[in-house]
Amino acid sequence: MEILKATMEDLDGVSDLFNQYRMFYEQDSDLEGAKAFLKERFEKEDSVIFVGKDDGKYVGFTQLYPTFSSVSMKRVWILNDLFVEAQARKQGIGEMLLRQAKAYAIGTGAKSISLSTALDNESAKKLYEKNGYERDVQFYQYELLVMDERS
User: Fold this and answer.
1) For residue 17, what is the domain's CATH number?
2) Distance between CA atoms of 39 and 10, rounded to whole angstroms?
């Protein structure tokens, strides 16, 4: 098992995982859309993706987006996506991806990594808490939808 920073050469393998991830969250399969979305992320360099590979097969990924904390005047990474294929789960891949994300955040001088997960995603909550992530009890999170998801 190896964890690598993905490049454009990993586009096909990561796109398949990304498509599966979206289907996990009850989105329709759209491999071409997933590929176009990730290709744009690579081209614009506006996210960082780490992949887990086992004997050359893509089995998991995490995607980080940069933002900043005005109060601390430091970089913050948003761990937006974490996914491990069903048959590869319970092998420590998610934990390896989280460790790599943490090492990357430290290496970039970031203040923190933030993430959110579904309230009912018990396995993800356990994984995050096991790896030192703490549930925010100081702030509420809000969202304003400005586009109909069907658009």
Assistant:
1) 3.40.630.30
2) 10
